[in-house]
Amino acid sequence: MRWAGISVRLLPLVCAAAVLAACGSDEPAKPHRWSPNATPRNEDWHSPSSSIMKYDTNHDGTLTRAELEAGLKAEFDSYDTDHKGCLSSAQVTAINEARVKADAAAASPLIDWKNQGCVDLEEFSATARSLFEQLDADGDGKLTPQELHPKRRQQHGAPPPVIDEMGSGGY
Length: 171
Prior knowledge:
Layout: H1 2-23, H2 48-52, E1 63-64, H3 65-79, E2 86-87, H4 89-103, E3 119-120, H5 121-135, E4 142-143, H6 145-148, H7 150-155, E5 162-163, E6 169-170
Antiparallel strand pairs: 1-4, 2-3, 5-6
Helix pairs in contact: 3-5
């Protein structure tokens, strides 16, 4: 009887040890701190302006609205293989997967904002057009190197942006 009482008391400990052993892993623990000997992370960051500079067809460093529109139309047409003027759900999924693979967190996915069952040229172009408008500080319809890289301008002695009464920056 005495052994039965001891084994009943040890049974929970044996079960707990078995559960903990099962939770173990053969994989080495991931380092939580930076180490000079660790494999470096992928730091290949793509700036938003670099995403639209692919449309600078004459490679002069300045992107005009006409170059942007022509590039967006050509890119859309290359994906619109069935020539319906609208990208199917399967086409959108493939494009989004390619964008994420190329740009990771900086990728801008295509979304059917109009709920029409496909993505048209307007929806396809929305992000690039919006970015162009934001970067075109003087509203002249072209992005100069200074507008594309405002931080570089500030680092080279240009005056800081003017803050208006509402607290937003502007030039």
